[in-house]
Design brief:
alpha+beta; Ferredoxin Thioredoxin Reductase; Translation Initiation Factor IF3; 2 domains; five-stranded mixed β-sheet; two-stranded antiparallel sheet; 16% strand; binds iron/sulfur cluster
Length: 207
Amino acid sequence: MLGMMIAFFKDLWKFRVEVKKQGTWMQKYIKKNNYALNPDLMMTTNLKVWISEMQATFGQRFCPCFEPSDDKELNKKMMCPCEYVEDEIKEYGTCHCALFGRADLDKAGWKASSKRLMAEYQIPLNLKDGVLDTRGQVLDHRRNLPVPDAMHQLKSTLNNYKGKSLKMIVSTEQEVKNLEDIAKYRKYGFSSKVNDDSFEVNLQLKN
Ligand code: SF4
């Protein structure tokens, strides 16, 4: 928990300029659409940091809850605020990431949506002896993308992982490309190879 708090403040400092900019467009956006921002300040700040990190890693303002896909049209739809907001607000009261929601959503409604999101991402990881097999996750029914995806499984692993290197098994070439971008951004060593039924990525986390 302490480690996560330290990481949060480090990231907040690193992205302080971008976080402020995210806040500016978000305020305009909710006003125009009669939505609200998640009243949980920690959650909203984290989402602003994660959107800033997506922008720094992949070059565009991708949704913080999904890594880029190999479908250019889908990627366009996933820029925050994404094309699914209205539909998801109708279904859950908030967007998938619980960032934007109905203006009249009460505290319990926001809490329920944040809980739904956490339940989707905090799954037991298939991690054994330094190998993280990311395959076989359920697909989000709108985007047809895994939840949690390889990127989020990596992030969850790194919260507690002490090893110097990590091997990841992924299903698609796009996931390999995304992990390469993450490695470049985070200055990790990176190599990959093609297996019979999967792709293997090796990350050198520390020297
Ligand atoms: S789900 Fe929410 S946070 Fe994610 S892109 Fe859509 S609007 Fe942005």
